[in-house]
Amino acid sequence: MADLGTSRFLAADYHRSVRSYSGSVFLADCPARLAVEVIADKWAVVVLFALSRGPCRHGQLVELVGGISRKMLTQTLRRLQGYGLVDRCSQNGKIEYLLTELGNTLIEPIGVLTEWAHVYGKDVVEFQETPAG
């Protein structure tokens, strides 16, 4: 199990952040809900994080992001382009994908989610494997 002190700290931090958005976070047009929609896709966060290393060609991303099909990568890249997070550019006749300035702003929050997964991922898996009841 994760350290309870860390858990309480994260919970307190969460409640402070919810309080600062109170009144709007539950509305359909709230920017926080848009942010979740943008990154909630299974592959979006992984592709964004992969691109944080620098520009990549499509084939490089397929190799870097384990388990993603070429078709799904193309769909994910188009979706991220539509949100203004990824640019598609031609470099010496070769297509490359790179993060936009806006896309780069998501790397730090993705890092926080990654850290959470490292700390609590095992707890989630253990809970899922525990019989209900």
Task: Explain the layout of strands and helices.
Blueprint: H1 4-20, H2 31-39, H3 44-51, H4 58-64, H5 70-82, E1 86-91, E2 94-99, H6 101-104, H7 107-129
Antiparallel strand pairs: 1-2
Task: Describe the protein in words.
The chain is mainly alpha-helical and 133 residues long. Helices cover 61% and strands 9% of the residues. It has 7 helices and 2 strands. The protein has a two-stranded antiparallel sheet with strand order 1-2. The protein is globular and about 55 Å long. It starts with a helix and ends with a helix.
Spatial order of the strands forming the largest sheet: 1-2
Question: Which CATH architecture is right?
Answer: Orthogonal Bundle
- Counted by DSSP, the helix tally is 7
Computed over alpha carbons, the radius of gyration is 18 Å
In the CATH hierarchy, the third-tier topology is known as Arc Repressor Mutant, subunit A
If you average the pLDDT, what whole number results? 84
How helix-rich are the residues, as a percent range?
55-70%
Q: Terminal Cα separation, in Å? A: 20 Å
**Which CATH first-tier class would you pick?**
Mainly Alpha
- Low-pLDDT windows of residues: 4-12
SSE pattern, N- to C-terminal: HHHHHEEHH
Biggest beta sheet summary: 2 strands, antiparallel
Number of domains: 1
Q: What share of the residues does DSSP label as strand, in percent?
A: 5-15%
- The total of beta strands comes to 2
CATH superfamily assignment? Winged helix-like DNA-binding domain superfamily/Winged helix DNA-binding domain
- Shape designation: globular
Structural class: mainly alpha
